[in-house]
Specification:
The structure is a homodimer. By secondary structure, the first copy, chain A, is an alpha+beta fold. Chain A contains 8 helices and 9 strands. In chain A, a hairpin with a 7-residue loop joins strand 7 and strand 8. In chain A, helix 4 packs parallel to helix 5. The interface between A and B is large, with 72 and 71 residues.
Chain lengths: ~250, ~250
């Protein structure tokens, strides 16, 4: 698929122009960043779904100063995250807020969403669940999704720090796109893979514990920064690439 | 050092009986769990400090429904975390709360603190900064602490899930205790160590961005659970050990 086909094909699936933009912009950004498993291949994947409720609209169902809960209401998770993120930018917390997104799947490249917050001057931490595809390094059944943890920190130099790490040695998107085998989807770390497995199980159970109903979901922490640590870190790093930054070597 | 020496030696350093209990209970728990780098060796380490302000008492300096800020005020970080955790248990959030701990170091085995929350029925996520000891897998200066991420989830079966993962292949405590060499303190993951490095940098910068003053600190998210996912996960896991649980094989 060529980039200029992305939005027309999303429109052909029945999405509103606004949702075509949200979805298309996410997939095109992932493609540009080389995160092909979250890119245009996902449009072909959506085209294989038997049914997509393209009219569904996510809603904020709890709205307190330090806590919000959103419900996907049958919409694609991308759309729920986008709506929740835009609401944070429109009305940032005084200090910090926890945002729980119920029935929210799939969620895409989480770094994309926290980068949006960081570009608006807000700190973001985001994780989300996905089907259980990681087993313990000791064997046994698959117990956790690849469950990325993504952290975005705004910077006065205009280049936020964005760390976006999944707990799998490869991504499920790589499997979908035919670039990796399903059996290579194990917790990363080799002899220390019990560490990434523990993170995946911890993040999965964290999200599950904050959801009032079964299903996949996301948990976002959004905060106003109290200081501006990225420029000094970038100075310290010198030629070493920081997460989410273009290479400088 | 024998376990029964722990509290007398802490008292001899000048700590109040209440603080002796907080510190001693943490070190003894770490020792029992085999986390020797966070155990009794730390009392010997404290005895080498030139000065410890044993009279310092941490204080809550911002207190809102969804956000608290604590300041160590020169007290050991263990005491600040303990005071913040006890305050959460005494007055849990309606839904969720972000707790930032300023001038809070050292913080010990983070799993100990989230387990305390989980035993009181609360979800906890905790990270903390420490001296920058991890360099990028690409080389260069040390850019991040080992910065553990710890997640505790209460369970109706009485055995919380506690995931506590540092981003180092070994712990600095292992180095202090002479069980590992300082040069082995690298991000874990071998060929995928850029992942744990990105997590360590992300967590470090997250904490730094939420601190209004320089120094080490901790960020805690505490929440009331909306559901009880651990028993079903334990059932699914069967004989496979879950993080923070005793082995069952």
């Amino acid at each position: 698929m060529q980039p200029d086909e992305a939005k027309p094909r999303l429109a052909a699936l029945g999405f509103s122009p606004e949702h075509v933009d949200v979805l298309g912009d996410h997939f095109l950004d992932a493609e540009r960043r080389g995160r092909l498993g979250h890119g245009l291949s996902r449009i072909e994947w959506l085209e294989t779904w038997e049914e997509i409720d393209t009219a569904a609209v996510p809603a904020r169902v709890v709205n307190e100063p330090g806590y919000e809960r959103w419900d996907g209401n049958g919409a694609l998770g991308y759309l729920t995250l986008s709506a929740a993120i835009q609401a944070q930018i429109a009305s940032p917390p005084e200090h910090a807020r926890v945002v729980v997104c119920v029935r929210t799947f799939p969620t895409g490249a989480l770094g994309y969403w926290v980068r949006m917050l960081a570009d608006a001057g807000l700190v973001g931490v985001l994780t989300a669940t996905s089907p259980r595809r990681l087993a313990s390094p000791d064997g046994g059944p698959k117990l956790a999704g690849t469950n990325p943890l993504s952290i975005g920190i705004p910077s006065s130099d205009g280049a936020p720090l964005v760390s976006d790490v999944s707990m799998g040695a490869i991504t499920h998107g790589d499997v979908i796109a035919g670039r990796a085998r399903a059996e290579d989807l194990v917790p990363f770390g080799g002899p220390l893979a019990h560490k990434s497995f523990a993170l995946a199980v911890g993040l999965h159970t964290l999200v599950d514990a904050l959801l009032p109903v079964d299903g996949f979901g996301a948990v976002l922490i959004v905060a106003r920064p109290e200081s501006d640590p990225v420029p000094a870190l970038r100075e310290l790093a010198g030629d070493v690439r920081l997460p989410g930054s273009p290479g400088r070597r």
